[in-house]
Amino acid sequence: MDLSNGLPRKELSVWLALLLIALALPSFSPPYVVLSVTSIYMYVTLAVSWTIFCAPTGYVSLATATFFGIGIYVLALLGKTLPLPLVIFLGGVASLFLGILVGLICLRLSGFYFAVFTFGLSELIRNSVLWWEHNITGTVGRWIPSGSAGKVYYSMLIVVTITVITSYLIGRSKYGLALKGIGESEEASEHIGINVTLHRIGLFAVSCFFMGMAGAAMGTKFSYIDPNSAFSPLISFTPVLMSLFGGVGKGYGPILGAFILTFISELLLSRFPYFYTLIYGIIFIVVILFMPKGLAGVLTRTEQA
Amino acid sequence: MRLILDVIISGLIQGAIYGLIAAGLNLQYGVARVLNVAHGEFVMVGAFWTYSMYTIFGCDPLLSVIIFSPISLFIGYLLYKSLFQYIRKSSETAEMFEGNSMLVSFGLLYVIQNLALLWWGTRTMAYSYFCSPLNFLGVTFEANRVLALFIGAAVMAGFYFFLRNARLGKAIRAAAESPTSAELSGIDIHKVLGLCFGLGATLACVAGGLISMMNEISASMGFPYLIIALVVVVLGGLGNILGSFLGGLLLGLVTTVVMYWQPELTLIASYLIFTLVLLVRPQGIFGR
Lengths: 305, 288
Prior knowledge:
- The complex is a heterodimer.
- Chain A is mainly α.
- Chain A contains 14 helices and two strands.
- Chain A has one domain.
- Chain A has a two-stranded antiparallel ribbon.
- The longest helix of chain A has 27 residues.
- The mean pLDDT of chain A is 83.
- Chain B has a two-stranded antiparallel sheet with strand order 1-2.
- Chain B is built from eleven helices and two strands, in the order ααααββααααααα.
- The longest helix of chain B is centred in the first third of the chain and has 30 residues.
- The mean pLDDT of chain B is 88.
- Chain B is mainly alpha-helical.
- In chain B, helix 1 runs parallel beside helix 5, helix 3 packs antiparallel against helix 8 and helix 9 packs across helix 10.
- Helices cover 77% and strands 3% of the residues of chain B.
- The radius of gyration of chain B is 19 Å and the shape is globular.
- The chains are: A mainly alpha, B mainly alpha.
């Protein structure tokens, strides 16, 4: 599919310029900027892949941490023996299969039940891995092969680029339209011959694939992991907040949300460590009260006006 | 035999606390449709209020709980009226309201957490109140835990009769069934939902006060209780307040049994029950 087809030339050039800046960034900025930008990429990947599934279908998945953590664990197990690009890919594949399994089990649940189920599942997996390490292997946590800041940066940049492009392509494809239809009316879609379950599971698996890749790519930054940090519930919640903050109605919403919120939290954490969550919380409440459709909603409104 | 009795009573004590918190969350989510993630923080605040009143003024924890019940009801009511009612009006669809109100409650969670940390720090605290040993059929319990069980049971029973017989209780049940038809039959829906939210906060605060009598408390104690409450709400059925009480008792019993047998499997067991119930009976064990 031709990328420029349908995407205004102006917008395309903005994205290309951003990509060029991103490619050149490590050569002219101090290491801590590179590290912060790497975590921005991670959250953009997670927010966008969360949105791939959750925006068109209306399901809220709270299992992001599981698929991210699977990626990290794949890295921990295979990182010493296999080359990094392959490990990142395998991290995605492992999450993809788990995603299919989870999808088969639970995508017949509706709304709220799906959300709490995915949350319960990710907590179940976290505690089971913890228990396993405690009782079977005897050591909790493990060292993982770490990469240089530059290596992590570029692997994360590649993952985020692939994720964003894929999400754009899915949104434009026949497949994406079918999903939007399911989100609007499940029954009507079934009547015109769309296999609802198959579409949902496929999409869920795709979104898990990217979360797993993000985990494997980002894992090299941590050098030491244990189940509590790899499967931290915060990793499930943060992308949801970011996507809704940015607005899921537009493709760039989650990207914007992840970018701004990661930036704000890094800034607050270094400037006001004691009032960090207080300010963060207030920003949240104010944003939702006055911009119920996220930042993208506000931007669209000003465009139309 | 002794062990069995010990486990059953400990389980009921734990379960009564779970039941209170979960019934509170169920009022907020099952009826008012606000998935209040800050619910656990109300438990924490209730615990610290009681703790501070006892250590600073020597005020009896039970008296503190009675004093704070109407205050927390009022705060919860105000929160609904100021934040969530506004979101309800600005949201186009029910899903949008649920998403946005959950986000706002996340904001609340962050704000309350941070204030609590500034105020009370990260230490764990405890006080001893009414902890003379109580002998029952050869098993010894601290008196405060038995007291907590009785108060928990009394609150549950009172609440049950309130929902069953009082005019307002009936209005709450009607709103849980269908907000639209409740409104059509002349119920001031926003007032009822606001009261549900407030009552949810009250139940959390009461549970927090009871917890402070028997366990150590800390500023980060809230979130785990939210998770447990979510599990119990699903167990007992969404919108089914009585189901939440019973589900809480059930989960308390199960976790205590697992705790005696294999302490490390406690959390795994509760999540396993949770996922199984969702798969087999998503309407809850006591749901229709």
